[in-house]
Specification:
This protein is α/β, with parallel strands linked by helices. The chain has a single domain, classed as 3-Layer(aba) Sandwich (Rossmann fold). It is about 30% helix and about 10% strand. The protein has helices at about 20-30, 40-55, 70-80, 115-140, 160, 180-195; strands spanning about 10-15, 35-40, 60-65, 90, 150, 200-205, 260. A 7-stranded parallel β-sheet has the order 3-2-1-4-5-6-7, with helices on both faces. Helix 4 links the parallel strand 4 and strand 5. Helix 3 (about 70-80) packs parallel to helix 4 and helix 4 packs parallel to helix 6. The protein is globular, with a radius of gyration of 18 Å. It starts with 9 loop residues before the first strand and ends in an 18-residue tail after the last strand. Mean pLDDT is about 80; it is low at about 210-225, about 230-255, about 260-270 and about 275-278.
């Protein structure tokens, strides 16, 4: 028996117990959506969901590790049994590969000396994990009248920006794991968008402004980062094309397959300044 007999909008956010994911969950619950807090640690997920409920939102914890196919499928089954559909999927979970090392000191990712196992681990979460979660949730998204997928990207994924010798990343060590994984994610986003454009599934990537991120060694319900105001996760108004229920200041959603940048905050490098997993 589905919990919602009418079409209540349901959003699932991976890595939502802290940071950008938590901030995004706050925004979506404020819009009246039911938000599923997907987190690897069940206790951290439930604590985050409880805090959102205490603030008046409708939030529920879902145990999900994007690198563990069993938990991914179990999460999809849980959404199926409880809600019967999914309207919004935000693939937010990700790792830098360098733990709590700042971008200026991430010499463990220099291409000529990087540990290939680190690169594999980063791609496993940031790219393959997105494929696993997206594909598991697609049957549920197809039941939505306006399905949306947002993949969390980074300015570090831009080949134009990172190849500029005088650009914002010029002072940072070159990296073989994080930035390439986000570039691959952008390419993957475009390919998903190409496949599902005809089916009405809007798929975009969003690159937030730079700000400190929490790490896996800190409390699982650390204060949230501000989420980008350019999320294209809400169903568009048929009349205006803007996300329904959003403020007039919210940026208009780009076409499917594009990278959306924030409309607030400075255009800063997109590397996490610390932390391992969102």
């Amino acid at each position: 028996m589905n919990e919602h007999t009418t079409h209540q909008k349901i959003a699932l956010i991976t890595g939502a117990n802290k940071g950008i994911g938590r901030a995004t969950a706050e925004q979506l619950t404020a819009l009246g959506m039911t938000v599923l807090i997907a987190a690897r640690n069940p206790r951290h997920g439930e604590e985050a969901a409880a805090a959102l409920r205490a603030a008046g939102g409708d939030a529920h914890a879902v145990t999900l590790d994007v690198t563990d196919p069993a938990t991914v499928q179990a999460a999809a089954n849980q959404v199926e049994e409880r809600f019967g559909h999914l309207d919004v999927l935000i693939n937010n979970a990700g790792i830098t590969g360098s733990g709590q090392v700042s971008p200026e000191d991430a010499y463990d990712q220099v291409p000529s000396s990087v540990d290939v196992d680190m690169v594999r681990a980063v791609f496993e979460t940031n790219v393959f994990g997105v494929i696993a979660v997206t594909n598991a949730m697609l049957p549920l998204l197809r039941r939505s009248p306006a399905p949306r997928i947002v993949n969390l990207s980074s300015h570090a994924a831009s080949l134009t920006i990172t190849s500029d010798p005088d650009g914002r990343f010029a002072g940072l060590p070159p990296v073989a794991a994080y930035a390439p994984s986000k570039a691959a994610l952008n390419a993957l986003t475009v390919q998903y968008a190409n496949e599902f454009r005809k089916d009405g599934i809007l798929i975009n990537a969003a690159a937030p402004a730079s700000a400190p991120r929490t790490s896996t060694t800190t409390a699982g319900t650390a204060p949230p980062r501000r989420a980008p105001r350019s999320w294209c996760a809400w169903p568009r108004s048929a009349r205006t094309g803007r996300p329904a229920g959003s403020s007039a200041r919210t940026a208009r959603c780009p076409g499917s397959g594009q990278v959306s940048r924030p409309t607030t905050g400075p255009a800063q490098p997109g590397y996490p300044t610390s932390g391992n997993r969102r």
